[in-house]
Amino acid sequence: MLAADAQRVFCNTADFGEELTYYPHEGASKTVHAAVTRHPDVAAAGGRHKVNDIEISVATTGDYGVATVVEGRDQVDIVPKLGGAAKRYVVREILQQDAGMWRLLCRGTVQ
Hints:
It contains one helix and seven strands, in the order αβββββββ. A six-stranded antiparallel barrel has the order 1-2-4-7-6-5. Helices cover about 10% and strands about 45% of the residues. The chain has one helix at about 1-10, and strands at about 20-25, 30-40, 40-45, 50-60, 75-80, 85-95, 100-110. It is mainly beta. The longest helix has 9 residues, at about 1-10.
């Protein structure tokens, strides 16, 4: 039930979700539907770049979900600011997992 609800409600692109391209460490890329939480840019250590953290919530199963996640290796294309172009982010951390959803911290460096 949780997995079906995740796919049908929270990640539904007609409601909350966005369509992203997910690149697993091994295997082919796939289109996923995810709820995206964007955080403001913050200065990285040394102040040389800005770091943009984005959290995504994606179903653990289904045609538009992700069955397994490899921290630090999987990547995803996300639009960092609405209306802009997609950029590649690395999945840095699994923040939460249950029977229906992953909540993933994704990080990209914005110059």
